[in-house]
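notes to self, project folder thing:

trying the whole complex as one job this time. last attempt i did each chain seperately and stitching them together was a nightmare. two parts in total, labels are on each line so i dont mix them up again. if this works i'll redo the older ones the same way
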Amino acid sequence: MIGGISTVVKRIMDHMSLVEKTLEAFNEVLRQYLKEDMDIDELGGLMKLVHDLEGQADDMQEEATESIMHSRLLPETKVELMRLVDRVDGVANKAESIVDHVFLFAHLKFPEDMRGQLAQIMEITVKQMKSAKEMVKFLFEDFKKAKAKAEEVDDLESEVDGLERALIAELRRWDVSIAEKYVYLNFIEKLADISDALEDVASVVEQIIAIRQI
Amino acid sequence: MKFPAWLKSYGPLSSGLYLGWALGTNDAANVFGTAVATRVIPFLWAGVSILIFATLGAVLEGYAGFQTLGRFGAMTPWQAFWIALSAALTVTLMTYLGLPVSTSQAIVGAIIGAGAVNGTLDLSPLGKVVISWISTPIGAGAIAFLLYFILKPLILKFSRGLFWWDNFIFWGLLIAGIYGAYSLGANNVANVMGVFVNAKVVSPFMGALLGGLSIGLGALTYGKKVMETVGEGIVRLSPYTALVVVLAEAITVHFFAVVGVPVSTSQAVVGGVIGVGFVEGVNRIDQQTVKKIIFGWIGTPTIAGLLAALIMFVVNLAR
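result (full assembly):
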């Protein structure tokens, strides 16, 4: 009864690959941004790459949604998969929104140790994205493995959470104006939001599996 | 006024065909309600499946029910007409009033009511019939309880991700629905055509064929709305438990088709729902449900019986 399933899987996974590439490009943006001797031209090029990849991910999201709609999956499954693809796309959107933030607040200068922690957040998030991609692949093949990967995504989010709290505590001790603190806080929170968005993807997968548990 | 010979011979069948059509519109929901309400199976597939498999069930296994109903006493073709009409009117009236109704219980009540007025009543099969009615929800509950445990390890062993699950639910509900349609035809065709076979208006084969077709056409022409409404009640179950309930109902109703007693598919569904509720630790039985079932056993045949007795009394007076 199920038609076009291989197309559905391919498009969902292609979409995830583009979101993963967007995150990797964004990681490069962050690296450049956190450098003492930031190269503005290179940063600009990387920022453009993030925008381009996010745009490609949007296009692929449409194609994936289209293939889901025209497949012969059960209506409930279609709705769940469209929600999943939408949440995955939200991850790329979060990364793109920080690029805009970087563009607006190019002068943000974090101290050395905080820069390390910010870079670490992004390294973990990229790792989390790889786990999320495997999780979605397993969702189509094996619920147990998908569930294990979802737990991995959740655990990585907890690590990011810990780093975020440490950064905010550090920020509290800074001797800068409230307005400046707010801008720095906003940046830290936005960065950690990408990990939260990936946790949301894991939650959708966990829900899909949970309602199919006997 | 002179009626054509074919109308005299086959005219009485009209009330039976109407009863079959009404039964099809109502009971289709008990076999494909979940699948159609959740849009897992398109209505047309469900309707056509009921038409084909209810007819097949009626033709292959519907005869035992004819014999049981025939034992309540002999009748003429036009007495059969009035009995089927009384049952049909009871079903229509009670559905209109929103009261629980079972065609099986209505036709037995009508046969008894008419038989009492005509002086042809034989109550010897009543014990077997009543025991079967009471056993229907209990049996379906027990079967659902067992099926839940038997199927669970099998599914967990073979479960392979989202698309496997999609296929399993689709084919599971389709096959259970087809079996349910077969059981419905095999069991309930006696309600529709039993009195006419007994009155020798039609042969058992022709009765089974016409009865099965009328049930199927009822489901196909007017079953969609009922499937969507009644189905929603069952939809609150998970797809797996809904599948178990439909299978338990089909097995129970099929069993009573072999025994030869028409039973209520709705009460079998309620029994199945209670059975899976026991496994899941959910109390799905409330006083209202129990009242509805007991009303089905006592209220429906009483109303149909009184109506048939009244009609028969008036008809006898007018002759």
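what i see at first glance: Residues 105 and 298 of chain B are 8 Å apart (CA to CA).
need to look closer tmrw
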